[in-house]
Amino acid sequence: MSANVQEYLMRHGIRPSLQRMAVMEYLMTHRTHPTADEIYGALSPSMPTLSRTTVYNTLNLLASRGAVLALDIDARQTRFDGDTSLHAHFLCKSCGAIHDMPVADDAMRMLRPFVPVQVDDVQILYKGVCCECYKCKTND
């Protein structure tokens, strides 16, 4: 996967470094929409020289170049998504999990008459209770 990660970063105008590749690879392989602290916690045992600041700076760079999505789902902390395709998110208010949700292919085309000039970011968020939590609650 390292070669794919390196190519992906270069396509987004980002110079690949060991730390940047590790963060990007983590986001590509962990679809949990992690926070910067979660990524740092996962990577630091195998990369003792990695700092929280490096993780935060890397994520900000990745997001600014469109390589990842910075999600404003949680007011306390930003979450990151390695999947930059158009999709929505579902936040479970019970367990806190974030799941990807499909969006109709023509959703952006339907919005075009209402968009004044330019759209830089679209975030569609559904909130509720996920199937796992709902099952748990109905079995009580």
Brief digest:
The chain is an alpha+beta fold.
Shape: globular
The tally of beta strands, per DSSP, is: 5
Structural class: alpha+beta
Q: Major beta sheet, specifics? A: 3 strands, mixed
What is the string of SSEs from the N terminus onward?
Answer: HHHHEEEEHEH
CATH homologous superfamily (4th level) name of the largest domain: Winged helix-like DNA-binding domain superfamily/Winged helix DNA-binding domain
Strand order across the largest sheet: 4-3-5
Give the count of structural domains.
2
CATH class of the largest domain: Mainly Alpha
CATH fold category name of the largest domain: Arc Repressor Mutant, subunit A
Report helical residue fraction: 40-55%
What integer value in Å does the Rg equal? 17 Å
Unreliable spans are: none
Number of helices: 6
Characterization of the model:
- 40% of the residues lie in helices and 14% in strands.
- The chain has 140 residues and is an alpha+beta fold.
- It has two domains: 2-81, Winged helix-like DNA-binding domain superfamily/Winged helix DNA-binding domain (Arc Repressor Mutant, subunit A, Orthogonal Bundle); 88-138, Ferric-uptake regulator, C-terminal dimerisarion domain (Dna Ligase, domain 1), CATH 3.30.1490.190.
- The strands form two sheets. Strands 4-3-5 form a three-stranded mixed β-sheet, with no helix packed on it. A two-stranded antiparallel sheet has the order 1-2.
